[in-house]
User: Which sequence fits this backbone?
């Protein structure tokens, strides 16, 4: 059983080792890069606990994964570490996945997993939608004069796309 012999509580490091070295590569068949990202996320949380004086690495337990600590960790990543919202979201989802695994393995950890699952990552800023200017729209529509059937069809398709606000997703720059 993966319990601390001194306290009888679930042993965090045994669960973390099994999660990263057995469950993720063998059961879930995840790539080494994905497993590394999850490991880094757990390391980030341990670093937060040590840096803020909550506890040293050697004394980390599942008690530190409560809602209060996790919310403070999210704020620490944003405010003190300057992580982008996408990074904070990735780190939080990795810890949530780990706690879900731990809860499946040990029923006494279910409450921690459920409390973590309710946490929301910070909202990511949305980029405004880039619209065509009226002269650009007129230029596109003027490209098809409507003198042939094919030209009228193309013009009608462009008008339909414009009127229905259809958009083509842009690739990331």
Assistant:
């Amino acid at each position: 059983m993966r319990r601390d012999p001194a306290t009888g509580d679930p042993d965090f490091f045994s669960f973390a080792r099994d999660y990263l070295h057995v469950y993720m590569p063998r059961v879930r068949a995840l790539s080494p890069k994905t497993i590394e990202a999850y490991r880094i996320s757990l390391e980030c949380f341990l670093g937060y606990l040590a840096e803020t004086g909550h506890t040293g690495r050697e004394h980390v337990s599942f008690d530190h994964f409560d809602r209060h600590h996790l919310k403070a960790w999210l704020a620490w990543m944003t405010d003190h570490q300057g992580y982008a919202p996408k990074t904070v979201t990735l780190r939080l989802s990795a810890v949530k996945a780990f706690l879900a695994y731990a809860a499946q393995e040990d029923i006494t950890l279910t409450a921690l997993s459920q409390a973590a699952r309710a946490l929301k990552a910070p909202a990511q800023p949305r980029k405004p939608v880039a619209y065509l200017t009226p002269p650009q729209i007129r230029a596109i529509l003027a490209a098809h004069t409507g003198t042939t059937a094919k030209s009228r069809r193309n013009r009608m398709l462009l008008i339909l796309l414009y009127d229905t606000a259809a958009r083509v997703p842009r690739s990331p720059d």
Q: What stands out?
A: The mean pLDDT is 88. The helical segments are 12-27, 32-51, 67-79, 85-105, 110-117, 134-142, 149-163. The chain has seven helices and no strands.
